[in-house]
Amino acid sequence: MPHIPEKLRYWMLIIPALAVMIIFYIFPVLNIWGISITEPSVGIENYERMFASNAVKVSFVLTFRIAAITTVACLILGYVVAYTISNLAGRVRPLMLGLVLLPFWVSVLIRSFAWIVLLGRSGLVNDGLMATGIISQPLRLMHNELGVLIAMVHVMLPFAVLPMLTNMRGISGSYIQAARGLGASEWRAFREVYFPQTLPGVMSGGLLVFVLSLGFYVTPALLGGGRVMMISEYITYQIQEFLNWGLGAALSVVLLMATAVVLLIASRFVNLKTTFLERR
Amino acid sequence: MTHPIISIRHAVKTYGKFRALDAVALDIHEGEFLTLLGPSGSGKTTLLSAIAGFTALDDGSVHARGHDISGLPPEKRDFAMVFQGYALFPTMSVAQNVGYPLRVRKWSKDRIAQRVHECLALVQMEKFADRMPHQLSGGQQQRIALARALSFKPDVLLLDEPLSALDKKLRSDLQWELKSLHKKLGVTFVYVTHDQEEALSMSDRIVILKDGKIQQEGAPDDLYNLPKNQFVANFLGKSNVVNAHVIGTQGEHLLAEVEGRQFCATYDHANSPTGQVNFALRPERIRLGPPGQETFDGHIAQISYLGERCQVLVRHDALGEILVSHPTWDAALQPAPQMPVSFGWDAGACVALDAS
Ligand SMILES: Nc1ncnc2c1ncn2[C@@H]1O[C@H](COP(=O)(O)OP(=O)(O)OP(=O)(O)O)[C@@H](O)[C@H]1O
Ligand SMILES: [Mg+2]
After folding, report:
1. From ligand 1's centre to the CA of A86, what distance in Å?
2. Is B221 exposed, middle or buried (0-12, 13-18, 19+ CB in 10 A)?
3. What is the CA A24 to chain-centroid distance, rounded?
4. A214 to each of A92, A168, A246, A274, how far by Cα in Å?
5. Side-chain half-sphere exposure of A162, counting CA atoms within 13 A
6. Residue B67 in 3-state DSSP?
7. Tens-digit pLDDT profile for chain A (280 aa)?
8. HEC profile for B281-321?
9. Closest protein CA for atom 18 of ligand 1
10. How far is the CA of B68 from the centre of ligand 1 (A)?
């Protein structure tokens, strides 16, 4: 057998995956960039239109707002879950972990439809509240920002829990004990000794949820009912309804850039390698 | 009468059916260096953490200067604990770590800075104030943990195997330092270890635990010279166990007999043993001589050379194998395998053990 240098051998191993990435991802992305400056005519006219458009501005603001609220909600709820699993639960720990992972086995589409069944005008929640006489008129729980947020938080929660959980499991219980032995109350020990050590996990989870939320399509589209137009849906709308490929492509480019900027800023605070690659 | 600084009464801790602490009663006196010594799993950490307040007892109580503190949380007890893994807070610098107990106690900034400096000086770590814990070696972390525990001038310092992660040389250096710190500060030390040499060299008093029960407590030399039972005799150094028949007393000693040969043994005058009794006998207290010179005759089965001394295993028909620690400089008798020898000991070298 001819001698192949070690480096080359590793390259050969990743060539198939790399080829798939180039053909089906990098190439289309470049194509989109191309379209954004060539359709319908060569120039930056699409970008000019986009920055002038009020609807686009509204959609971007909405997207960042929803992503931010989802992130904060996921972090707060997820922190409690992760803390409980890593510190309190004894024998039920595997069960609790299983419950966190369970949603991954059910498609996002199905989970979103399930929320429609729950939150609709005559969904389970409204029916239940009306039957018990707490409300007389059905509440508007979907086809608005609230509905999108409820479902988004649910879908994104595991992505917040997992990084925080791995982080917390690496923190020995003796720190809290030491702090208390030195005179700190339980709450103070948590706040000053435990919490700072969990910040890397919080940052990782937050970044993951925020970035995923920025480009999320299925859940906002279904629960927003066309009324909560996040940027991904806006792009689809432009291309499918108006066949406005140029503007749609330009929007995609800007979304990609915005996400890249978020990652860039975050990389100053978070170790991206451990967030997305290694699960410590 | 002054109360002991800590008094443990009938402490019981069970995990399921397992008794980690079994009716432990112990008084700790102000200013002493007390060591809890025992094999792994004997309940040392459990006892220490019951004193510190991390472990709630199932029965019994802990008193501090006569007040029952069993119900108090750890932060209200004003004892300081040094953990086995040091548990320095990784997000705080060395100075912040040492100052933490003071910040909790709402000291002013100036006083904290001054005290932190004092404590770092105490453990010779002033230069490291601005480092983070992960930038320190194991021995340095250990010193900082000590400085942190001492910073708020606790009444009692609880140390759980603080040196067990360090190498032998560093360990003996730190043993000296701990000992001199204890002298200098006059703080009560409760020290956990499973290393008997460490316990013997450092302590004012040693408490030997096994299976959650106190086996014996006393000053190091008392424990070494007058073990109460076989476990203690073998846990602190090596001992031979000699089984002999008690035939009476002679002065302050007990007179015992094996195959018609008699010897005098030390015994606890509170209970006079009779019949067949086990005696502990330290290898270094046995003399070897040419056949016929000493009380018993046997022959050498095995020798291992240890430099200054050699260990000689002597076989005797009735006593079995007896381990002798023989000085290698003794020109009168150079042991060799299969050599017939006689052996004996001074009156009182044997100690009568409790049956168990
Ligand atoms: N949380 C617990 N649950 C069940 N059993 C426990 C628990 N903590 C301690 N034990 C048991 O109690 C016994 C005493 O434990 P402890 O930690 O006090 O031993 P130790 O003397 O400190 O031993 P080592 O020298 O190994 O540290 C052990 O047999 C241990 O298995
Ligand atoms: Mg222990």
Report:
1. 21
2. exposed
3. 23
4. 34, 27, 21, 21
5. 21
6. strand
7. 667 788 888 888 889 999 999 999 999 999 999 999 988 888 888 899 888 999 999 999 999 999 999 999 999 999 999 999 998 777 888 888 888 888 888 888 999 999 999 998 888 898 899 989 888 888 888 889 999 999 999 999 999 999 999 999 989 888 999 999 899 999 999 999 999 999 999 999 999 999 999 999 999 999 988 888 899 999 998 888 888 889 999 999 999 999 999 989 988 877 766 666 544 4
8. ECHHHCEEECCCCCCEEEEEEEEEECCCEEEEEEEECCCEE
9. B43
10. 25
The reported pLDDT for the residue numbered A268 is 83
* 3-state class (DSSP) for residue A264: helix
Say if residue A138 is exposed, middle or buried (CB neighbours under 10 Å; 0-12, 13-18, 19+). Answer: middle
CATH 1.10.3720.10, applies to A54-277: yes
Tokens of B26: 């112990």
Considering the entire predicted model, what is its pTM? 0.80
ipTM of the shown complex: 0.76
Residues 85..124 of B with a Cβ closer than 8 Å to A: which?
A: 85, 87, 89-91, 100-101, 104-105
Could you tell me the distance, in angstroms and rounded to a whole number, from the CA of residue B90 to the centre of ligand 1?
26
Q: Do B54 and A181 touch (CB under 8 A)?
A: yes
* Residue A228 phi, psi (nearest 5): -115, 90
Q: What is the DSSP code (8-state) at residue B274?
A: -
- Residue B241 token pair: 């166990």
Phi, psi dihedrals of residue B314, rounded to the nearest 5°: -105, 135
Q: Is B2 in the pocket of ligand 1 (CB under 6 A)?
A: no
Q: Does B78 touch chain A (CB under 8 A)?
A: yes
Full DSSP string of B5-66:
SEEEEEEEEEETTEEEEEEEEEEE-TT-EEEEE-STTSSHHHHHHHHHTSS--SEEEEEETT
Tell me if residue B142 falls in helix, strand or coil: helix
Instruction: Measure Cα distances from A70 to A67, A75, A218, B40, B43 in Å.
Output: 5, 8, 15, 50, 49
Two structure tokens written together for B22: 């079994």
Within 8 A of B83 by CB-CB distance, chain A residues are 174, 177-178
B191, B203 contact by CB (below 8 A): yes
Domain with CATH 1.10.3720.10 in chain A: 54-277
Structural tokens at position B155: 């009444």
Q: Residue A2, preceding bond cis, omega within 30 degrees?
A: no
Best residue in B100, B112, B151 for a mutation probing chain A (most A CBs within 10 Å): B100
d(Cα B17, Cα B270) in Å, to the nearest integer? 35
3-state secondary structure of B82: strand
